[in-house]
Design brief:
Elements (H helix, E strand, L loop, with lengths): L1 E3 L2 E8 L3 E3 L4 E3 L2 E4 L9 E4 L2 E5 L15 H15 L5 E10 L4 H12 L4 E6 L2 E14 L2 H4 L9 E7 L4 E7 L2 E10 L3 H16 L5 H10 L6 H24 L7 E6 L2 H8 L7 E3 L5 H21 L1
Parallel strand pairs: 2-8, 8-10, 11-14, 14-15
Antiparallel strand pairs: 1-2, 2-3, 3-4, 5-7, 6-7, 6-9, 9-10, 11-12, 12-13
Length: 309
């Protein structure tokens, strides 16, 4: 969270697997209830409805503004970030992002969605919040994760932002993004999970819990039989090989370019890539995109204020 005049800038990375702010991360899960549920640890109350944050699995939506869920998750993200500074009331500038090639087409609608209530009151984790949405800034995913270090990028490089739902790739020359060479594909880590679930069932006639799949993808192993681990590993290696095939289609060359990998897919590449890591660099901070959104908004707003003098 950054301060600008009498307002706070809160970066929010609305992922399909996790919601991230500059300092926090929680699962993109939400269930709505008409009456107060039994367990209320992560409960948000808004518009006379009770929402449990982090429960369930949010399905992939190309247009996040098509239901109320991401709005409520945004309120939870704001509250989580404000709580770290012991604030319950604030004028907020939201800095968020969209997949690279979707930004221009969805930017206005997503900004309107996030700012549909200029003033809003809600309760999260038994704390009452009163916030005013002063502005919403929308930036491209992927680029935001490297923008704080872009001045150090020399020669040719590519950013691969591999999230739960999408993979975004961006070609850079001396740190400058090339607008005609950016791509968004529905090829996030959840696609790997689905492939493992299906492949494991086909080979063993047994169901595999997603918790086990997540454990293997994150760490490379789990407390399971070696034969089960071999099946999961083989499918994950195929998925990672497909990532690099697609990157090469988008002009990636491992001999002449640095590859910056961010997002949850970084774990998969670390654990299951069979090629050289010589020019592969990992941005391990899961909150890097949210921090980048805040950085971009802060730079823009200060430049705008300077020009108005």
């Amino acid at each position: 969270m950054k301060s600008f005049k009498d307002k706070v800038i809160i970066g929010i990375d609305h992922g399909y697997g996790n919601i991230k702010t500059a300092n926090h991360c929680f699962k993109t899960g939400i269930t709505a209830h008409d009456s107060e549920p039994l367990f209320t640890k992560d409960m948000l109350v808004y518009n006379d409805k009770y929402y449990l944050i982090g429960e369930g699995h949010k399905e992939f939506l190309p247009e996040k503004q098509n239901d109320e869920d991401y709005y409520v998750l945004t309120l939870a993200a704001i509250a989580t970030e404000l709580s770290g500074s012991n604030l319950t009331e604030a004028d907020v500038i939201i800095a968020a992002g969209l997949p690279l090639t979707w930004t221009s087409g969805q930017k206005s609608d997503f900004a309107a969605y996030l700012s549909k209530n200029k003033e809003v009151e809600f309760t999260f984790r038994n704390v009452d919040y009163h916030i005013r949405i002063s502005d919403v800034k929308i930036y491209p995913q992927g680029y935001s994760a490297v923008v704080p270090i872009k001045s150090t990028l020399k020669g040719l490089s590519m950013v691969a932002d591999i999230g739960n739902g999408t993979m975004n790739t961006l070609y850079l020359v001396n740190g400058r993004p090339q607008s005609g060479m950016m791509y968004t594909e529905k090829f996030g880590t959840y696609q790997c999970t689905l492939a493992i679930r299906e492949g494991f069932m086909r080979k063993t006639r047994r169901e595999l819990n997603d918790y086990i799949i997540d454990e293997v993808l994150r760490t490379g192993t789990a407390d399971i039989p070696d034969s089960d681990l071999e099946i999961i590993t083989a499918i994950a290696e195929e998925y990672v090989a497909e990532i690099f095939r697609r990157l090469r289609e988008h002009h990636y060359d491992e001999d002449s370019m640095d590859l910056y990998v961010c997002g949850g897919g970084g774990c998969l590449i670390k654990n299951f890539y069979q090629g050289s890591f010589t020019r592969v660099k990992f941005i391990d901070d899961i909150c890097a995109a949210a921090k980048g959104y805040e950085y971009l908004a802060n730079v823009y707003l200060r430049a705008e204020a300077k020009n108005e003098r």
